[in-house]
């Protein structure tokens, strides 16, 4: 399942409030995210306001469209928009621009195992 990582910028003077809002996200929003195909979704916030989001989903566009169809997402995005700097698309969920993945440990370890010759033990079967 593809991994998605994105960044947004939270207003530095609103970090504590942003953290507080995410300490207990509305149960309806949590269910909508899970039902829409957002898996292993995490947000990481740096002290200067850099927000890094990570999720796993089969299809990001479909997961975003499914969320856009929910009333709870419209309410959540309207409340969250003021926390962010320079939202080109108007709401945080529309501003997500996935980053290119340039390294993944598990993928490279798997590739290495698949290309590594079987160890020779010197034993005859």
Automatic annotation (TrEMBL):
Q: Gene3D superfamilies in the record, alphabetically?
A: 3.30.70.100
Mind telling me what this protein is named? L-rhamnose mutarotase
Which InterPro entries does the entry mention? Dimeric_a/b-barrel (IPR011008), Rham/fucose_mutarotase (IPR008000)
Report any Pfam family annotated for this entry: rhaM
Q: Which ranges form a coiled coil? A: none
GO MF, any single term: racemase and epimerase activity, acting on carbohydrates and derivatives
Q: Which GO terms describe its biological process?
A: rhamnose catabolic process
């Amino acid at each position: 399942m593809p991994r998605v990582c994105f960044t947004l910028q939270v207003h530095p003077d609103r970090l504590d409030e942003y953290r507080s809002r995410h300490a207990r996200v509305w149960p309806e929003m949590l269910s909508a995210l899970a039902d829409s195909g957002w898996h292993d979704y995490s947000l990481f916030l740096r002290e200067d306001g850099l927000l890094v989001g990570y999720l796993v989903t089969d299809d990001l566009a479909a997961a975003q469209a499914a969320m856009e169809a929910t009333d709870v997402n419209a309410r959540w995005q309207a409340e969250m928009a003021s926390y962010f700097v320079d939202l080109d698309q108007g709401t945080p969920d529309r501003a997500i621009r996935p980053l290119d993945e340039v390294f993944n440990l598990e993928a490279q370890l798997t590739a290495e195992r698949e290309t590594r010759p079987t160890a020779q033990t010197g034993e005859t079967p």
